Amino acid sequence: MRLLTQALVLLFLINLTCFCTSSKSDRSGINSVETSKKDSSLTIAFGSCNKQYKPQPLWQPIISNHPDLWIWLGDIIYSDTEDDPDFIRKNYAKQNKKKGYQALKSSTKVIGVWDDHDYGQNDGGKYYALKDSSQQILLDFLEVPKDSPRRTRKGVYSSEVIQKNSLSVKIILLDTRYHRDDEDDENPETTILGEEQWKWLKEEISSSHENLLIIGSEIQVIPKEHRFEKWENFPNEREKLLKLIATHNKPTIIISGDRHIAEISEIKLPKMDFPVLEITSSGMTHTYIGQVNETNKYRKGEISQELNFGLIKASFNKEGNLFVDMQVRGKDNKKLLEETNTY
Q: Which of 66, 147, 193, 252 could make a disulfide contact with 197, Cβ separation 3.0–4.6 Å?
Protein backbone atom coordinates (compact mmCIF):
# COMPACT_ATOMS: atom_id res chain seq x y z
CA MET A 1 0.00 0.00 0.00
CA ARG A 2 2.84 2.37 0.87
CA LEU A 3 4.51 1.70 -2.50
CA LEU A 4 1.23 2.39 -4.31
CA THR A 5 0.84 5.70 -2.47
CA GLN A 6 4.39 6.75 -3.37
CA ALA A 7 3.81 5.86 -7.02
CA LEU A 8 0.62 7.92 -7.14
CA VAL A 9 2.38 10.93 -5.58
CA LEU A 10 5.21 10.64 -8.12
CA LEU A 11 2.74 10.45 -11.02
CA PHE A 12 0.94 13.55 -9.69
CA LEU A 13 4.21 15.52 -9.52
CA ILE A 14 5.17 14.53 -13.07
CA ASN A 15 1.79 15.65 -14.42
CA LEU A 16 2.01 18.90 -12.46
CA THR A 17 5.44 19.66 -13.94
CA CYS A 18 4.20 19.05 -17.47
CA PHE A 19 1.23 21.33 -16.88
CA CYS A 20 3.37 24.18 -15.55
CA THR A 21 5.68 24.23 -18.56
CA SER A 22 3.08 24.03 -21.29
CA SER A 23 1.60 26.73 -23.49
CA LYS A 24 -2.01 27.61 -22.93
CA SER A 25 -4.71 30.14 -23.78
CA ASP A 26 -6.65 31.97 -21.10
CA ARG A 27 -10.31 32.95 -21.28
CA SER A 28 -9.55 36.38 -22.69
CA GLY A 29 -7.98 34.87 -25.78
CA ILE A 30 -4.52 36.12 -24.83
CA ASN A 31 -1.87 33.48 -25.38
CA SER A 32 0.04 32.72 -22.18
CA VAL A 33 3.36 30.91 -22.03
CA GLU A 34 5.04 29.67 -18.88
CA THR A 35 8.68 28.75 -19.23
CA SER A 36 10.89 26.51 -17.11
CA LYS A 37 14.30 27.22 -18.67
CA LYS A 38 16.97 27.30 -15.96
CA ASP A 39 18.33 30.83 -16.53
CA SER A 40 16.71 33.12 -13.97
CA SER A 41 16.30 35.90 -16.55
CA LEU A 42 13.33 35.87 -18.89
CA THR A 43 14.90 36.19 -22.34
CA ILE A 44 13.08 37.38 -25.46
CA ALA A 45 14.83 37.44 -28.84
CA PHE A 46 13.57 39.17 -31.96
CA GLY A 47 14.56 40.13 -35.47
CA SER A 48 13.40 41.29 -38.90
CA CYS A 49 14.35 41.64 -42.55
CA ASN A 50 15.22 38.07 -43.45
CA LYS A 51 15.61 37.06 -47.09
CA GLN A 52 14.72 33.40 -47.49
CA TYR A 53 17.19 32.94 -50.36
CA LYS A 54 20.26 34.38 -48.57
CA PRO A 55 22.58 32.78 -45.99
CA GLN A 56 21.18 33.01 -42.46
CA PRO A 57 24.14 33.01 -40.05
CA LEU A 58 22.32 34.26 -36.94
CA TRP A 59 20.26 31.26 -35.87
CA GLN A 60 23.02 29.60 -33.87
CA PRO A 61 23.92 32.81 -31.99
CA ILE A 62 20.23 33.34 -31.27
CA ILE A 63 19.81 29.80 -29.96
CA SER A 64 22.95 30.13 -27.81
CA ASN A 65 21.17 32.82 -25.78
CA HIS A 66 18.47 30.29 -24.81
CA PRO A 67 15.51 32.58 -25.56
CA ASP A 68 12.19 31.81 -23.94
CA LEU A 69 10.43 33.43 -26.93
CA TRP A 70 11.31 34.43 -30.50
CA ILE A 71 9.45 37.34 -32.14
CA TRP A 72 9.38 37.96 -35.88
CA LEU A 73 9.01 41.73 -36.47
CA GLY A 74 8.23 41.51 -40.15
CA ASP A 75 9.89 40.87 -43.49
CA ILE A 76 10.16 37.23 -42.47
CA ILE A 77 10.45 36.60 -46.19
CA TYR A 78 10.66 38.81 -49.27
CA SER A 79 7.72 37.89 -51.44
CA ASP A 80 6.23 40.92 -53.20
CA THR A 81 3.40 39.99 -55.54
CA GLU A 82 0.22 41.63 -56.77
CA ASP A 83 -1.73 38.53 -57.76
CA ASP A 84 -0.09 35.26 -56.62
CA PRO A 85 -0.69 34.12 -53.03
CA ASP A 86 0.98 30.78 -53.83
CA PHE A 87 4.22 32.70 -54.37
CA ILE A 88 4.00 33.95 -50.77
CA ARG A 89 3.16 30.47 -49.49
CA LYS A 90 6.09 28.86 -51.31
CA ASN A 91 8.55 31.40 -49.92
CA TYR A 92 7.36 30.79 -46.36
CA ALA A 93 7.86 27.07 -47.01
CA LYS A 94 11.45 27.76 -48.09
CA GLN A 95 12.08 29.68 -44.89
CA ASN A 96 10.48 27.02 -42.76
CA LYS A 97 12.91 24.42 -44.12
CA LYS A 98 16.01 26.31 -43.00
CA LYS A 99 17.88 24.07 -40.57
CA GLY A 100 18.79 26.90 -38.23
CA TYR A 101 15.20 28.06 -38.01
CA GLN A 102 14.02 24.50 -37.45
CA ALA A 103 16.51 24.21 -34.58
CA LEU A 104 15.14 27.38 -32.99
CA LYS A 105 11.56 26.16 -33.32
CA SER A 106 12.44 22.89 -31.62
CA SER A 107 13.35 24.70 -28.40
CA THR A 108 11.59 28.07 -28.46
CA LYS A 109 8.06 29.35 -28.97
CA VAL A 110 7.73 31.57 -32.06
CA ILE A 111 5.30 34.45 -32.58
CA GLY A 112 5.29 37.33 -35.03
CA VAL A 113 3.75 39.84 -37.39
CA TRP A 114 4.42 40.90 -40.95
CA ASP A 115 5.88 44.02 -42.53
CA ASP A 116 5.57 45.02 -46.16
CA HIS A 117 7.61 42.40 -48.03
CA ASP A 118 5.95 39.39 -46.36
CA TYR A 119 2.62 41.21 -46.53
CA GLY A 120 3.26 41.12 -50.27
CA GLN A 121 3.59 44.76 -51.32
CA ASN A 122 6.44 47.20 -50.79
CA ASP A 123 5.24 49.94 -48.39
CA GLY A 124 1.78 48.37 -48.72
CA GLY A 125 -1.32 49.33 -46.77
CA LYS A 126 -5.05 48.72 -46.64
CA TYR A 127 -5.57 48.71 -50.41
CA TYR A 128 -3.42 45.63 -51.05
CA ALA A 129 -5.65 43.14 -52.86
CA LEU A 130 -4.15 39.97 -51.35
CA LYS A 131 -4.09 41.07 -47.71
CA ASP A 132 -6.69 38.54 -46.50
CA SER A 133 -5.03 35.63 -48.28
CA SER A 134 -1.63 36.79 -47.09
CA GLN A 135 -2.89 36.91 -43.50
CA GLN A 136 -3.94 33.26 -43.52
CA ILE A 137 -0.65 32.22 -45.11
CA LEU A 138 1.34 34.03 -42.42
CA LEU A 139 -0.76 32.45 -39.67
CA ASP A 140 -0.15 29.03 -41.24
CA PHE A 141 3.59 29.70 -41.15
CA LEU A 142 3.36 30.73 -37.48
CA GLU A 143 1.31 27.57 -36.80
CA VAL A 144 -1.58 29.55 -35.35
CA PRO A 145 -4.51 27.18 -34.64
CA LYS A 146 -7.40 27.26 -37.09
CA ASP A 147 -9.82 28.20 -34.30
CA SER A 148 -7.70 31.12 -33.03
CA PRO A 149 -9.37 34.58 -32.95
CA ARG A 150 -6.49 35.72 -35.15
CA ARG A 151 -7.98 33.69 -38.02
CA THR A 152 -11.11 35.86 -38.21
CA ARG A 153 -9.60 39.17 -37.07
CA LYS A 154 -8.95 41.85 -39.68
CA GLY A 155 -5.19 42.06 -39.31
CA VAL A 156 -2.46 40.00 -37.64
CA TYR A 157 -2.11 41.97 -34.38
CA SER A 158 -1.95 39.88 -31.21
CA SER A 159 -0.87 39.79 -27.58
CA GLU A 160 1.09 37.27 -25.56
CA VAL A 161 1.89 36.91 -21.86
CA ILE A 162 5.07 35.08 -20.94
CA GLN A 163 5.88 34.15 -17.36
CA LYS A 164 8.97 32.89 -15.59
CA ASN A 165 8.99 32.34 -11.86
CA SER A 166 7.32 35.49 -10.45
CA LEU A 167 8.13 37.67 -13.48
CA SER A 168 5.54 38.29 -16.19
CA VAL A 169 5.84 40.19 -19.46
CA LYS A 170 3.07 41.19 -21.85
CA ILE A 171 3.95 41.45 -25.53
CA ILE A 172 1.65 43.40 -27.84
CA LEU A 173 2.34 43.02 -31.56
CA LEU A 174 0.81 45.69 -33.78
CA ASP A 175 -0.20 45.36 -37.42
CA THR A 176 0.92 48.49 -39.26
CA ARG A 177 -0.14 47.22 -42.71
CA TYR A 178 -3.67 45.84 -42.91
CA HIS A 179 -5.54 49.06 -41.97
CA ARG A 180 -2.94 51.60 -42.98
CA ASP A 181 -4.05 54.61 -45.02
CA ASP A 182 -1.91 56.21 -47.67
CA GLU A 183 0.21 59.00 -46.23
CA ASP A 184 -1.50 62.39 -46.40
CA ASP A 185 0.01 65.31 -44.51
CA GLU A 186 -3.14 67.38 -45.02
CA ASN A 187 -5.57 64.86 -43.50
CA PRO A 188 -5.38 64.42 -39.71
CA GLU A 189 -7.74 61.43 -39.89
CA THR A 190 -5.31 59.13 -41.68
CA THR A 191 -4.57 56.03 -39.65
CA ILE A 192 -1.99 53.29 -39.26
CA LEU A 193 -3.91 50.90 -37.02
CA GLY A 194 -7.56 51.49 -37.89
CA GLU A 195 -10.46 51.92 -35.49
CA GLU A 196 -10.84 48.30 -34.36
CA GLN A 197 -7.14 47.78 -33.70
CA TRP A 198 -6.98 51.02 -31.70
CA LYS A 199 -9.91 49.88 -29.58
CA TRP A 200 -8.23 46.52 -29.01
CA LEU A 201 -4.88 48.16 -28.17
CA LYS A 202 -6.40 50.48 -25.56
CA GLU A 203 -8.00 47.49 -23.84
CA GLU A 204 -4.79 45.45 -23.98
CA ILE A 205 -2.75 48.24 -22.39
CA SER A 206 -5.32 49.27 -19.79
CA SER A 207 -5.78 45.66 -18.65
CA SER A 208 -2.06 44.96 -18.39
CA HIS A 209 -0.84 44.16 -14.87
CA GLU A 210 2.40 42.46 -15.90
CA ASN A 211 5.82 43.62 -14.70
CA LEU A 212 6.90 44.72 -18.18
CA LEU A 213 5.08 45.73 -21.36
CA ILE A 214 6.72 45.19 -24.75
CA ILE A 215 5.09 46.74 -27.82
CA GLY A 216 6.21 45.42 -31.19
CA SER A 217 5.86 47.69 -34.22
CA GLU A 218 7.20 46.76 -37.64
CA ILE A 219 8.14 50.40 -38.30
CA GLN A 220 9.91 52.79 -35.93
CA VAL A 221 7.88 54.74 -33.37
CA ILE A 222 10.25 57.12 -31.57
CA PRO A 223 12.64 58.37 -34.32
CA LYS A 224 11.20 61.30 -36.29
CA GLU A 225 13.83 62.71 -38.61
CA HIS A 226 14.68 60.10 -41.24
CA ARG A 227 12.89 59.92 -44.61
CA PHE A 228 11.73 56.31 -44.45
CA GLU A 229 8.55 54.67 -43.14
CA LYS A 230 7.86 55.55 -39.51
CA TRP A 231 5.02 56.53 -37.18
CA GLU A 232 5.95 60.20 -37.55
CA ASN A 233 4.67 60.01 -41.14
CA PHE A 234 1.29 59.84 -39.38
CA PRO A 235 2.02 62.38 -36.62
CA ASN A 236 -1.41 62.19 -35.00
CA GLU A 237 -1.13 58.41 -34.74
CA ARG A 238 2.33 58.65 -33.18
CA GLU A 239 1.14 61.18 -30.62
CA LYS A 240 -1.88 59.02 -29.83
CA LEU A 241 0.27 55.94 -29.24
CA LEU A 242 2.77 57.74 -27.00
CA LYS A 243 -0.04 59.30 -24.95
CA LEU A 244 -1.58 55.87 -24.50
CA ILE A 245 1.74 54.47 -23.29
CA ALA A 246 2.18 57.39 -20.88
CA THR A 247 -1.32 56.90 -19.47
CA HIS A 248 -0.36 53.32 -18.61
CA ASN A 249 2.75 54.63 -16.76
CA LYS A 250 4.38 51.22 -16.42
CA PRO A 251 7.77 49.94 -17.62
CA THR A 252 7.42 49.84 -21.42
CA ILE A 253 9.82 48.91 -24.21
CA ILE A 254 9.14 49.25 -27.94
CA ILE A 255 10.76 46.85 -30.41
CA SER A 256 10.87 47.56 -34.15
CA GLY A 257 12.52 46.46 -37.39
CA ASP A 258 12.35 47.52 -41.06
CA ARG A 259 15.32 49.87 -41.25
CA HIS A 260 18.24 47.56 -42.18
CA ILE A 261 20.17 49.10 -39.29
CA ALA A 262 20.12 48.65 -35.52
CA GLU A 263 19.81 51.43 -32.96
CA ILE A 264 18.36 52.20 -29.54
CA SER A 265 16.20 55.29 -28.95
CA GLU A 266 14.82 56.78 -25.75
CA ILE A 267 12.03 59.27 -25.08
CA LYS A 268 10.80 60.77 -21.82
CA LEU A 269 7.03 61.25 -21.83
CA PRO A 270 5.12 63.75 -19.66
CA LYS A 271 3.60 62.29 -16.49
CA MET A 272 5.46 59.01 -16.96
CA ASP A 273 7.81 57.77 -14.25
CA PHE A 274 10.05 55.83 -16.65
CA PRO A 275 11.69 56.61 -19.99
CA VAL A 276 10.46 54.57 -22.95
CA LEU A 277 13.17 52.83 -24.95
CA GLU A 278 12.89 51.50 -28.48
CA ILE A 279 15.21 48.80 -29.78
CA THR A 280 15.35 48.62 -33.57
CA SER A 281 16.83 45.37 -34.87
CA SER A 282 17.18 44.94 -38.65
CA GLY A 283 18.28 42.98 -40.60
CA MET A 284 19.08 39.34 -40.20
CA THR A 285 20.41 38.60 -43.70
CA HIS A 286 21.24 42.05 -45.08
CA THR A 287 21.77 45.60 -43.85
CA TYR A 288 22.29 49.04 -45.34
CA ILE A 289 25.80 49.11 -46.80
CA GLY A 290 26.19 52.84 -47.49
CA GLN A 291 27.20 55.50 -45.01
CA VAL A 292 24.41 56.34 -42.56
CA ASN A 293 24.45 60.01 -41.55
CA GLU A 294 20.84 60.40 -40.47
CA THR A 295 19.94 62.36 -37.37
CA ASN A 296 17.97 60.87 -34.50
CA LYS A 297 17.81 63.15 -31.48
CA TYR A 298 16.45 60.25 -29.41
CA ARG A 299 19.30 57.85 -30.23
CA LYS A 300 21.40 56.39 -27.43
CA GLY A 301 24.83 55.28 -28.56
CA GLU A 302 25.65 54.45 -32.15
CA ILE A 303 24.03 52.88 -35.20
CA SER A 304 25.06 49.34 -36.13
CA GLN A 305 25.06 48.20 -39.75
CA GLU A 306 26.10 44.61 -39.01
CA LEU A 307 23.70 41.69 -39.33
CA ASN A 308 21.82 41.67 -36.06
CA PHE A 309 19.08 40.42 -33.76
CA GLY A 310 17.64 41.87 -30.57
CA LEU A 311 17.58 40.53 -27.01
CA ILE A 312 15.65 41.61 -23.94
CA LYS A 313 16.60 39.99 -20.64
CA ALA A 314 14.33 40.79 -17.71
CA SER A 315 14.83 39.80 -14.09
CA PHE A 316 14.46 41.05 -10.53
CA ASN A 317 17.61 42.34 -8.82
CA LYS A 318 18.55 41.72 -5.19
CA GLU A 319 16.47 44.71 -4.09
CA GLY A 320 13.41 43.28 -5.83
CA ASN A 321 13.38 45.89 -8.61
CA LEU A 322 12.81 45.01 -12.25
CA PHE A 323 16.09 45.01 -14.18
CA VAL A 324 16.04 44.94 -17.99
CA ASP A 325 19.09 44.38 -20.19
CA MET A 326 18.44 45.38 -23.82
CA GLN A 327 20.96 44.20 -26.39
CA VAL A 328 21.58 43.99 -30.10
CA ARG A 329 23.86 41.12 -31.10
CA GLY A 330 25.35 39.93 -34.38
CA LYS A 331 27.33 37.11 -35.95
CA ASP A 332 29.24 34.92 -33.50
CA ASN A 333 26.98 36.40 -30.81
CA LYS A 334 28.99 39.65 -30.89
CA LYS A 335 27.42 42.34 -28.70
CA LEU A 336 26.78 45.41 -30.87
CA LEU A 337 24.60 47.66 -28.69
CA GLU A 338 23.39 47.57 -25.10
CA GLU A 339 21.30 49.62 -22.69
CA THR A 340 20.12 48.66 -19.23
CA ASN A 341 17.40 50.08 -17.03
CA THR A 342 16.14 49.47 -13.51
CA TYR A 343 12.49 50.14 -12.72
A: 193
